[in-house]
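lol forgot to send this yesterday, sorry. struct tokens for the thing we talked abt
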């Protein structure tokens, strides 16, 4: 039996000023950058977290304070906290877990321009994120090797303009919304001027983890495009959809942006039918359609989050039995070198049977 959400997505914050929204850089600067400080704010001690890695190598902790405020104080197993706390399990080697699990390197056309699938290309706009998720498939990516931003984007834009087979550009990173409004507006205008492009897709976690980033200027830039704008957010647990995130999503949707969500199936965080069902219900209440439920990309350091395929398939079948088809995300895996995401099903001979 699938549990249903009894509460809609929280209402947008009333009276939120543009001054507060435009201070997203200040909010990011105030983010927690070490585990003891974050745990102290939650009324916890490092000793309360078995296996905590207080000094991770290379991939440090980073958590905006607004996102931390959605965590349950005193709860060492909070699902948002578990997504961001470094663990000593990340240091344990695991067979099949790679530095580049999705083949970014092999699909690179130019520095920061990746093409894996026909008709669309991915542009890495910014090398940083607002939150460091411990399962991130690009946690080992060498953003420093991309070189200076301006000449890299110039070269990528020239390549996109010269390739009429492309109809969609995906802005990614890092997080592309960490580019400031003037820089992002200029980039969007240049993409908008390429006649063979039809859609602009942005993959970003910021409307959820740093909702202050959704400024009036950002909304105006997206609303004024010839290209059809699609924003794919990344939300794994219904607890992430707080009032400020709801407000940011409402403003984007009012501006005509199509909103989709992708999640990663994570052991100990969202690998239950009840959690996934409530997530889908609350996403829809926020004007967001569930899009993909990804099986974990096998990146070095994330093996402890893995959910076996058989368990994932059983979860999805139960989810299908209790939700309308448009609220059931597609369970997929990204496999390096394949021409599309691979849908997971019980056997290769079984029809796809996507929900209707």
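and heres what i got for the seq, position by position
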């Amino acid at each position: 039996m699938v549990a249903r959400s009894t509460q809609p997505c929280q209402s947008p914050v009333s009276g939120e000023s543009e001054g507060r929204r435009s201070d997203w850089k200040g909010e990011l600067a105030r983010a927690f950058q070490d585990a003891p400080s974050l745990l102290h704010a939650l009324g916890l001690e490092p000793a309360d977290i078995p296996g905590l890695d207080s000094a991770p190598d290379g991939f440090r902790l980073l958590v905006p304070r607004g996102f931390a405020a959605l965590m349950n104080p005193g709860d060492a197993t909070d699902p948002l906290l578990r997504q961001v706390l470094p663990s000593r399990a990340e240091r344990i080697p695991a067979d099949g877990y790679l530095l580049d699990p999705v083949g970014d390197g092999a699909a690179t056309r130019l520095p920061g321009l990746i093409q894996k699938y026909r008709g669309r290309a991915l542009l890495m706009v910014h090398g940083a994120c607002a939150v460091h998720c411990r399962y991130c498939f690009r946690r080992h990516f060498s953003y420093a090797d991309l070189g200076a931003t301006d000449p890299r984007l110039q070269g990528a834009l020239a390549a996109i303009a010269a390739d009429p087979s492309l109809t969609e550009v995906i802005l990614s990173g890092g997080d592309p919304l960490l580019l400031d409004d003037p820089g992002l507006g200029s980039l969007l205008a240049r993409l908008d001027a390429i006649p063979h492009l039809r859609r602009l897709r942005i993959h970003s976690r910021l409307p959820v983890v740093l909702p202050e980033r959704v400024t009036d200027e950002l909304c105006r830039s997206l609303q004024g495009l010839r290209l059809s704008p699609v924003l794919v957010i990344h939300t794994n647990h219904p607890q992430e959809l707080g009032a400020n995130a709801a407000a940011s999503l409402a403003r984007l949707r009012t501006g005509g942006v199509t909103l989709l969500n992708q999640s990663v199936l994570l052991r100990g965080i969202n690998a239950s039918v009840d959690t996934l069902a409530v997530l889908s219900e609350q996403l829809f209440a926020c004007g967001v359609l569930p899009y993909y439920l990804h099986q974990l990309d096998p990146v070095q350091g994330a093996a402890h989050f893995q959910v076996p395929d058989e368990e994932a398939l059983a979860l999805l079948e139960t989810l299908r039995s209790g939700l309308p088809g448009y609220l059931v995300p597609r369970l997929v895996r990204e496999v390096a070198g394949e021409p599309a995401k691979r849908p997971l099903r019980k056997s290769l001979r079984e029809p796809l049977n996507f929900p209707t």
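Residues 153 and 187 are 8 Å apart (CA to CA). anyway ping me if u want another try
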